[in-house]
Amino acid sequence: MKFDVDYFENRKYSSREVLIKLHALEALKWVSTQLDISFLDGKGKKVLDVGCAYGYVTSLLKKLMYETYGLDVSAYALKLAVENKPKDAEFIVSDIQRSLPFMENTFDLVICFDVLEHLLYPEKALKNMYAVCKDVLLCTTPHGVMDRIVKKLIRDYDETHINTKTPREWMRIIKKELSPPPEILKIECYYDIPLQVSNKVLFYKSLRFPKMGLGIRILIKKRVKNF
Length: 227
Description:
Elements lengths: L4 H6 L6 H19 L10 E5 L5 H8 L3 E6 L2 H9 L6 E4 L13 E7 L8 H11 E10 L3 H8 L13 H11 L6 E14 L2 E10 L5 E7 L6
Parallel strand pairs: 1-2, 1-4, 2-3, 4-5
Antiparallel strand pairs: 5-8, 6-7, 6-8
């Protein structure tokens, strides 16, 4: 599967910059609330943005003072990210389903927003991200049932979503694949509600839904090893 110029232009990706950043902010606020630690302050912390594409969230993370690395399988997307490179951010072309060019326990935070659904082997991606993470892994992904129903109705369905799952399925995969077991594992459904006129976003709110939200947030806090 190629994520080249045709994919990004067909998805009108560049017009979604503001929505992508707001989506990331809502996820960071959510994990901050869950762990009672501010992830909106990245000073002294290192973050890996998996599936960074044009680097929109990478740029946001830099503004939040993180030491930031962006990773994507698309050389085309990263070329554009580098052209608009936020100061001191690093970008790497790599497939998250393969071994990563980082040591274990490198990053305080690993984020993976709307990527898992595109992968043939999301369980391998989770294991690789968990390995290089030393504290928190945060993912978002469409709900396996709701994504197909709602997005097809509004004609915004992405045919590259080959591996959408339900919260229960993600819970089973994570418990089976990740070792040592996470200290904290939380999975929650949500629905982002934007109010947009042309390319201007007037309102954006993320609402929690117990079972059937359009999206799923996954919080994995790694257990600290006691030596």
